[in-house]
Amino acid sequence: xxxxxxxxxxxxxxxxxxxxxxxxxxxxxxxxxxxxxxxxxxxxxxxxxxxxxxxxxxxxxxxxxxxxxxxxxxxxxxxxxxxxxxxxxxxxxxxxxxxxxxxxxxxxxxxxxxxxxxxxxxxxxxxxxxxxxxxxxxxxxxxxxxxxxxxxxxxxxxxxxxxxxxxxxxxxxxxxxxxxxxx
Length: 183
Description:
- By secondary structure, the protein is an alpha/beta fold.
- Helix content is 30%, strand content 21%.
- The chain is built from five helices and 15 strands.
- The chain has helices spanning 2-11, 18-24, 26-42, 46-60, 172-177; strands spanning 63-64, 69-70, 75-76, 83-84, 89-90, 95-96, 101-103, 115-116, 121-122, 127-129, 133-134, 139-140, 145-146, 154-158, 161-165.
- The protein is globular.
């Protein structure tokens, strides 16, 4: 939990104290609850896990399926309207803003949700759909719709999103705030 609080303070310039972050950040509450529901899911206590995830959704506005796999230092900033599907996989040091959907495509069983590699940042309102992979350290612009795999260190913008290589001098925070990457 301390690691999560430190990650939130590192990524959110508005965060003032550890206590404030721990008590008032719904993204952290959703992640902490998800860890419990995910454990129940792995123990084959599927119904209680689903009930718990729905309770968390009602309390935080963030829906995370209990089967989703989430890495360390994951941060959801603001959070309202975030949806993370059943077969989604999220690496370490990933950040999502409000309104992001990691959704499935089609009615098939098996892997149907995206994988976000380590260090990915996803702007507000972006939709990442299907069993695709967003490469490490990539940035997805606000309101982008990603439906195809992308390489590491890329910037994805547009509908449908098109990747371009990320330049060495581009910071994640600057990319997510730049008007060029908002549609």
